[in-house]
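Support reply, case 0932

Customer input (verbatim):
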Amino acid sequence: MPVAAGVESEGHNIRLVYEAIDQPLGELPAGVTITLGNALPILEAGNEAQLNFSIKADNTAEPTGHLILKVLSDERELGSVLVNYQFSEASPALFYSPSFIETGVALGETVTETLRLENQGLAALNSLQVELLETDGSPAPGWIFVTTKKLGTLAIGESREIQIMASPSAGEGVYEFLVRASSDNYATTDILVFVAVTQSGIGSVLFKLEDIYTATLDAEENVIEGLAGAKIRVQNDPVFTLDETLTTDENGEALFENLPAGRYKFRASAPNHQEITGRFQIKPGITVSERVFLDYNLITFEWSVTEIPLEDRYEINLDA
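Our regenerated output:
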């Protein structure tokens, strides 16, 4: 809750107070708990700050209602705040990252991807389990599987990671699957998985470079799609001779094709911008997307040094 001091006054020990005497019925609402935040030791003239509080309820609380909080300082009562509330039954909420899995692997090789599941709700997620399926709901082939199927209870704020392993024996192509997450007290959730299977371990990466002017208008009122003319250098981590450099086009994009699968590092630079480095991984049969933002140097300095002679000076005092 925001509070502000007047231009010529300051407050000391500004705080919220929750008492039965201030409530409409002269008593605190049953089943409702208010936790008040710390007081503000001092609020100087003309400044603003926040007073915090939290509210929760148990099963004895009415689903709707209102209560009153008073705002006090050591100098005086500053006012009161009417809080209207509406409670609903606490429930879990399953979130996952990434939003989908896209990977690639060569025939005869193995790839492992990680999926993170998190309960961001207000109640435990019970009996959580996952399974890997074809998009029609039938079981996935044996060459792709999840390493852990039964995850048990996911407490409030808790997260778990599962691994998806693929060692394809099928022919080339892009295969689509579902990771289906289900529990006793939450709706079934499907997460897409795409696997590109190729004969060779070759992939691509598409860089998209942006800066503070991206998505603004140029002098001709055209939208600036990206940072054009930037240099991007990629280098394979274990094999330093795999080294390529491209320049971004008018859309700020640069496509590196036919790169052997593996780990790479990149360096992106442009005039009047700060250089940036990073890492990425090439996966067989797919094009990885890398979005890079370069900070713009709004101020630049140039200086030179001119040598000048310094005259030595000595002061001698003789004491007789």
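We compared this against your earlier run and they match. Two observations from our side: The mean pLDDT is 90. The domain at 202-293 is CATH 2.60.40.10 (Immunoglobulin-like). Please reopen the case if you see a mismatch on your end.
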